[in-house]
């Protein structure tokens, strides 16, 4: 398992996940820069992602949906705010309806994905911040931590295949 640390901090409204990959920085970057690779790792196992739009540039968007084993679709959207290839990017992540319009009943998170060379591979630090501690608690109760761990573990499998 590549996840080495998880910190849930309700006071700062953040979930921070650290993961180490046995692959060069540029290779890990490609997982996020290539929509077909991202589809293989975005979302937990059994909920494959389909990327509809993928523009990993400031002001760009990534729209997607995940499909459950029962065929139910869950829609989401990234609004990219900053990109520093291959060192990371920032984006706002929202639950949406099937037109990729944000669901006002669900929290929006601000995300920072940072990649750095570490012990001959790459360390990824994923920081997700919510507007309130209650919003963070809501997504934790929905299983976000376990889903993120499982999704990140899929990156190791993808990296080993190529």
Automatic annotation (TrEMBL):
Classification via CDD domains: SRPBCC_CalC_Aha1-like (cd07814)
Domain of life per record: Bacteria
Pfam families associated with the record: AHSA1
Positions of the Activator of Hsp90 ATPase homologue 1/2-like C-terminal domain: 23-159
Family, as annotated: Belongs to the AHA1 family.
Protein name as catalogued: SRPBCC domain-containing protein
Species whose genome carries this gene: Desertihabitans brevis
């Amino acid at each position: 398992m590549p996840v080495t640390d998880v910190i849930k901090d309700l006071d700062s409204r953040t979930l921070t996940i650290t993961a180490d990959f046995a692959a060069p920085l540029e290779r890990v970057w490609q997982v996020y820069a290539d929509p077909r690779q991202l589809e293989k790792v975005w979302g937990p196992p059994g909920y494959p992602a389909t990327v509809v739009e993928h523009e990993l540039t400031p002001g760009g968007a990534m729209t997607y949906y995940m499909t459950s084993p029962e065929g139910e679709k869950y829609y989401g959207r990234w609004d990219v705010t900053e990109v520093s290839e291959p060192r990371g990017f920032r984006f706002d992540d929202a639950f949406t309806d099937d037109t990729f319009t944000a669901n006002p009943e669900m929290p929006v998170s601000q995300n920072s994905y940072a990649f750095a060379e570490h012990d001959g591979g790459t360390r990824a630090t994923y920081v997700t911040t919510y507007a309130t501690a209650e919003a963070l608690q809501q997504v934790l109760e929905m299983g976000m931590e376990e889903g993120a761990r499982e999704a990140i573990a899929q990156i190791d499998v993808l990296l080993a295949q190529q």
